[in-house]
Design brief:
11-stranded mixed β-sheet; DHBP synthase; Alpha-Beta Plaits; alpha/beta; 24 helices; 7-stranded mixed β-sheet; 31 strands
């Protein structure tokens, strides 16, 4: 007896060789019928022996292709006589043309080059030897080239590259791993590589252009490496954008790159030819090895070795004042071929690989951006395969316990899909605007939330343009008709303002979501917490988020659920002296804390008592009287409970980034760099003390307690005066602040019903802080934290989507 069935498979099942897998499976089971892609996923119409049906379904679930992720396999018996008759007339099993429709499947991220393709580009006998655009269904570009779904070649930026007979034969052969590999190409029919130098300015022209060399691919890599050895800066077009590349051992080249990018201190990313090369400079644990060789191929932040094991030393300007280095491995054939050649030529196989842009600007990714690269690079290694959307390198942090935390999701991760937890049965098509820093947009539909690629900081006009493009891109790609718009509560955010216009055009209105509630929700979603009405405690630690009474929050203890929270405790608020300037000039935050000490009698008194504190002497030269007047008159001095500004203040007290920061989180990361396992063990019982005090403000009746950290500043001053090492001070602060947070949680546990605590916010990217909190937490309280979703503002769009 035969079964006649429709089998619907959902999940990440398009563009991963899933239909050839089904075709081969059907041949194995002697089944007949057909398989196709559609907007829901993969659909199989099959005639199969009854006794074989369940085994067939089990094989789909157990042995799907490596890049696939099967979520559901639903079997429906066919009852229509016409459909049964049609299946009876089929003698074999076919792969048929895709169907379009309302989008309800997953767009796949780009995937790093597989071992088979890597072998081919290194095999002189293979027709793809040395070809920089080799790929198959197991690897290669996806999200960076797709324009519309279903994922077919005509819907990608490969549409203009007509396949040669050999590639077409592979493409049409279900037994070949390049069957329906949409970017399939070879040197005869695919994209081409080009090398260029600065051209001469011609007569009657006031501009410069790139002058392209007439070289074969192998010679281009030879020439590129020669330029790098000469200390030149190379712009290289990759999968999701252009990078600026230079010799990581060349101080002059690295410093020149900083000058051209206007990037004085933020660390550069590095690319190494292989993991062995990384191991000369970093402590590469199991988690780091896994991520370095993963299909996502992100930048991996790892502890820097105190002494490298290579005869070659990295330039000191790569990651100044940091204890970690960020390495990635080549993720596409172009990078693989370049790095292999560079390893032979240089002996060390390491290059600086940083995004091609000036500080604060988005990464260049379009061919039209190449003109602007003339000011940044000496030479250009590019190609003619268009990039559909900018995808910056993703970043993963390795934590002290050899776990990981994703800091930025983009190439290799995006678009990132999260299934709605149980309890969200009513599904409303929603667009979430995110925030204005580290922005990503999210859409919610069909029981899923899709997070866009990383867009950046919306203070920049070009990023604002990218934001509008990404919104249009997502809604078209997923054919979304929004019914609900979620934004941040901050009235001055670009994302909120833009969505006001968008909402009006769609007959909708914005629904503001408080910033820290969105953080709380994002971590709940990542941990699969059901929408059951149960309450949790959330500890949200970040830079700034708009709260109530025109105050800025950032060190919050929230009690509640997806739909409502109460602010039951917080860090004690301090004024942001000078408003937004306090976010960039740590000394302002230092003074805000010092002036609020219980026995503060002026800087002169403090300086007389703590003569060794250089930061106090520097404060004397600042316009303190003016700041006091501004505060007393409530001019540009909003109150803030920001944990980020606390870290800035303590860093400034220790004379780290006292004057200003050139990138977000600089003071905190440079301060954290002094923390080590040895230091934590040495100072485990010497953490600075925090104090829990009752809140007396009548306007904040639900806010019961405040975490006061004033005593920390006195303790740091005492240690500075006694000559305590900065390494010990940093450890004592982190231990003390972690203990203070846990003490507050324990106190709240006596008054509120919860068994788990949710941690989110940018400060939770401080892996030592979270590590210390986890180790100090009572065993009966579970810690819920981010891992795959960034703890920073990139994830708040997901939290907004479930409010």
């Amino acid at each position: 007896m035969f079964a006649f069935c429709n089998i619907r498979v959902t999940g990440c099942v398009q563009g991963v060789g899933f239909r050839p897998f089904i075709w081969q499976l059907a041949k194995q089971f002697e089944a007949t019928g057909w398989v196709l892609n559609d907007s829901e996923g993969v659909l199989i119409d099959i005639k199969i022996h009854n006794v074989q049906l369940q085994r067939f379904v089990d094989e789909i679930k157990k042995n799907a292709p490596a890049l696939a992720s099967v979520e559901t396999v639903a079997v429906t018996n066919i009852v229509s006589p016409q459909q049964i008759e049609k299946l009876n007339t089929v003698s074999g099993f076919d792969i048929v043309e895709s169907k379009t429709g309302v989008m309800n499947t997953v767009v796949l991220p780009d995937a790093a080059t597989c071992d088979l393709c890597r072998s081919e580009i290194n095999d002189p006998k293979n027709r793809r030897y040395g070809y920089a655009f080799t790929n198959c269904t197991l690897c290669g570009p996806r999200y960076s080239i797709i324009k519309n779904m279903p994922y077919d070649r005509a819907q990608t930026s490969m549409a203009d590259f007509e396949m040669c007979d050999a590639c077409l034969a592979e493409y049409n052969n279900p037994a070949d791993r390049r069957f329906h590999a949409q970017p399939n190409a070879c040197p005869d029919c695919g994209p081409k590589l080009y090398l260029a130098k600065h051209g001469e300015i011609k007569e009657n022209q006031n501009y410069q252009a790139w002058s392209f060399e007439d070289l074969d691919s192998d010679s281009m890599f030879d020439q590129a490496c020669l330029f790098l050895k000469q200390g030149k800066i190379l712009a290289v077009k990759g999968l999701g954008g252009y990078h600026l590349v230079c010799d990581a051992m060349n101080d002059k080249a690295c410093n020149l790159l900083r000058e051209r990018k206007y990037r004085p201190a933020k660390p550069f990313a590095l690319m190494a030819a292989d993991i062995e090369s990384v191991g000369h400079y970093c402590d590469v644990g199991n988690s780091a090895k896994t991520w370095l060789s993963s299909v996502q191929s992100p930048i991996v932040l790892m502890p820097k070795l105190t002494k490298n094991t290579s005869p070659y030393s990295l330039s000191e300007s790569i990651a100044p004042n940091q204890s970690k280095l960020g390495f990635m491995l080549p993720s596409n054939p172009l990078h693989i071929l370049l790095m292999q050649k560079w390893q032979k030529e240089s002996g060390h196989g390491v290059l600086v690989f940083t995004s091609a842009n000036r500080s604060g600007m988005p990464q260049a990714y379009l061919q039209e951006h190449e003109k602007a690269l003339l000011d940044l690079a000496d030479h250009l290694l590019t190609h003619n395969r268009p990039i559909v959307r900018r995808l910056e390198d993703s970043v993963v942090l390795i934590t002290p316990d050899d776990d990981f935390l994703v800091l930025r999701q983009s190439r290799g991760f995006s678009p990132f899909k999260v299934n709605l937890p149980k309890g969200f049965e009513v599904d409303t098509a929603t667009i979430s605007a995110g925030g204005d820093l580290k922005n990503s947009i999210a859409i919610r539909h069909h029981g899923q939330i899709i997070l866009s690629h990383y867009l950046g900081d919306l203070a920049n006009f070009d990023v604002q343009t990218a934001y509008k493009e990404a919104l249009d891109d997502l809604t078209k790609l997923y054919q979304l008709r929004p019914e609900k718009i979620q934004t941040d509560l901050h009235p001055g955010y670009f994302s909120s303002g833009f969505m006001d216009d968008f909402s009006r055009n769609h007959g909708l209105k914005n629904n503001p979501v408080q910033h820290h509630h969105a953080h709380f929700n994002a971590c709940m979603v990542e941990n699969g917490i059901p929408d059951s009405g149960a309450n949790y405690l959330g500890v949200i630690l970040d830079g700034l988020g708009y709260g109530e009474e025109n105050h800025f929050w950032g060190g919050e203890f929230l009690y509640g659920n997806y739909h409502a929270v109460n602010r039951v405790a917080s860090l004690q608020a301090k004024p942001l002296l000078g408003g937004d300037k306090a976010n960039k000039e740590p000394w302002r935050n230092l003074y805000a804390y010092l002036r609020d000490l219980k026995d503060f009698a002026g800087l002169d008194v403090l300086l007389n008592e703590y003569k060794s504190a250089q930061s106090l002497a520097k404060l004397k030269n600042k316009p303190i009287d003016l700041l006091e007047q501004m505060f007393k008159q409530s001019i540009n001095s909003p109150m803030s409970s920001s944990a980020g500004r606390l870290f800035d203040a303590v860093s400034a007290l220790c004379n780290i980034c006292f004057e200003q920061v050139s990138y977000e989180g600089q003071a905190a990361t440079e301060f954290e760099a002094y923390v080590s396992k040895e230091g934590v063990l040495k100072n485990k019982d010497l953490g600075y003390l925090c104090e829990i005090v009752s809140n007396s403000r009548e306007s904040e009746q639900e806010l019961n307690y405040l975490l006061s950290v004033g005593s920390i500043f006195k303790a740091v001053l005492v240690d500075i005066e006694q000559g305590v090492l900065l390494e010990d001070i940093a450890c004592r602060f982190h231990i003390g602040f972690a203990n203070g947070i846990v003490s507050m949680i324990s106190k709240l546990k006596n008054e509120y019903d919860f068994d788990s605590v949710v941690f989110s916010g940018g400060v939770c990217q401080n892996s030592w802080l979270i590590y210390l909190i986890e180790h100090a937490m009572p065993k009966e309280i579970a810690v819920l934290k981010h891992r795959m979703l960034p703890a920073n503002d990139q994830s708040i769009a997901i939290g907004q989507a479930v409010k």
